[in-house]
Write a structure and sequence with these properties.
Number of strands: 2
Number of helices: 10
Radius of gyration: 21 Å
Helix content: over 70%
Distance between the termini: 66 Å
CATH topology: Rhopdopsin 7-helix transmembrane proteins
CATH class: Mainly Alpha
Structural class: mainly alpha
Largest sheet: 2 strands, antiparallel
Length: 265
């Protein structure tokens, strides 16, 4: 039995403890993201050439996350195994020495900008979408960089709170951009599409709330609570958002086939 397998078997002794559930959710993340990527790529066949890239990017988001969840699961399982001691058949879990924070933020630095860039990609505004493309991309990177700095700061310190608040401000600016510039850019499109676009925006405005909340769970004294929140949020927001994007693209594909997509003024 190799060292990785040995660590995994030892980590399984955590059972249904908070740490054990966290580890299972990392594994669920691998399966969920992988299945999501395959499913979204398969949906390309339901889209016109103009909108296939929406499904391609949605699948890439899930595929990248699947790889990083595999790495994060390995790190967490090894850390959990090292924290477990068994005395007279009684399993005790000490403090975990490492969390896969770096891998998580590397994943987010790739996938989060791709998520918000699905909006200009879907609207296919050509040169008009360049400003929106760069604004959303820059805001999402700013949000993540400041959040990562906060994560690496001393828990509960002034810098921890300060960088956290700045990151939240960037998120609010992203939401403002979506309900402002994106809404205006899509104003010429039918009401049926507007509703689906609204679902996509809600993933960012409401679905992402769990991330700042999860960040604060580190204050509970058990950082695994934060990992649970992040893991659940990632699967819902990446796979669910990808499906919402493809449904919106399918609507536009149908309108395109009917020749009923209005021209933006």
């Amino acid at each position: 039995m190799n060292e990785t397998s040995s660590s995994t078997f030892k980590a399984l002794q955590a059972g249904l403890s908070t740490e054990g559930i966290t580890m299972y959710l990392f594994w669920l993340g691998i399966v969920g993201m992988g299945a999501g990527a395959i499913y979204l790529w398969m949906l390309q066949g339901t889209l016109s050439n103009k909108y296939k890239k929406v499904a391609i990017v949605a699948g890439i988001i899930c595929a990248v996350a699947c790889f990083h969840y595999y790495r994060m699961a390995s790190i967490y399982a090894e850390s959990l195994a090292n924290a477990i001691t068994v005395t007279d058949g009684v399993v005790s879990i000490g403090e975990l020495s490492a969390f896969p924070t770096a891998y998580r933020y590397i994943d987010w630095l790739i996938t989060v900008p791709l998520m918000v860039l699905e909006f200009p990609l879907l609207l296919a505004l050509g040169k008009k979408s360049k400003g929106l493309f760069w604004n959303l991309g820059a805001l999402s990177l700013g949000m993540l960089v400041f959040a990562w700095i906060a994560e690496e700061s001393s828990l509960g310190s002034g810098s921890w709170w300060g960088f956290y608040i700045v990151s939240c401000i960037f998120w609010i600016l992203i939401v403002k951009q979506l309900y402002g510039q994106v809404t205006n850019a899509a104003s010429h499109l039918p009401e049926s599409f507007q509703g689906q676009l609204g679902v996509m925006k809600k993933f960012i405005a409401i679905g992402w709330i769990i991330y700042p909340v999860g960040f604060l769970l580190a204050l509970s004294g058990n950082e695994s609570f934060r990992e649970i929140a992040y893991n659940v949020a990632d699967v819902i927001n990446k796979v669910g958002f990808g499906v919402a994007c493809v449904i919106a693209a399918q609507m536009l594909t149908k309108l395109e086939a009917e020749g009923s997509i209005p021209t933006a003024e």
